[in-house]
Amino acid sequence: MYSERAAVKAMRTQDAIAKAIRKEIKWYQAAEILGVSPRQLRRLHRRWQRFGEKGLLDQRQRTPSPKRATAEEVETVRKLFSEKYFDLNIQHFHEMMVELHGLRRGYTWTKGVLQQAGLAERAPKRGQRALPHALSGGIRHRGPSARPPRGGQFWWRRGGQF
């Protein structure tokens, strides 16, 4: 069972290849329509000849994951937060959902659902690291071995004297 999106994409590809075969459009135009390179379109054409319509289906987009949350579960979380638990923060709401309502999803999933629905705010971005100020008369962050010290030699070349 393939997703509807994969089936629609396969039909678009088949239509573009058929138009190119009938010489209604050029092959590079068909590739532009599909958003692929001409070389990739030739690969798709060969797969279509060899395997038919099933060759054009995207093999990565088969059935949805069995772990995927149902629309009913998402709606329940949204509804309970907006109507009953609106005064709790996300962490406490998640704990209540696990204890009282048997939620089997993680905290991050709960937070994502509420943020997508606009029921919870995203955390503010972290601040930028402060840039070092330039020292007058020299370069600041070059490290200890950038230039010799005032005595003219590094401490490890002084014969053990510091």
Keywords for this entry:
162 residues, mainly alpha, 46% helix, 0% strand
What does this molecule look like?
With 162 residues, the protein is an all-alpha fold. Helices cover 46% and strands 0% of the residues. It has helices at residues 4-21, 27-34, 38-51, 71-83, 90-101, 107-116. The N and C termini lie far apart (77 Å). Among the domains are: 4-56; 71-116. Helix 1 packs antiparallel against helix 2 and helix 5 (90-101) crosses helix 6.
Which helices and strands appear, and what pairs or packs with what?
Blueprint: H1 4-21, H2 27-34, H3 38-51, H4 71-83, H5 90-101, H6 107-116
Helix pairs in contact: 1-2, 5-6
Question: How would you summarize what this structure contains?
Answer:
This protein is mainly alpha-helical and 162 residues long. Among the domains are: 4-56; 71-116.
Residue stretches low in confidence (pLDDT < 50, at least 5 long) are none
Termini separation (Å)?
77 Å
Shape: flat
Portion of residues within helices = 40-55%
Mean pLDDT: 84
How large a portion of the residues is in β-strands, by DSSP E?
A: under 5%
Q: Structural class, from helix and strand content?
A: mainly alpha
Order of helices and strands: HHHHHH
Number of strands: 0
Major beta sheet summary: none
CA-based gyration radius? 31 Å
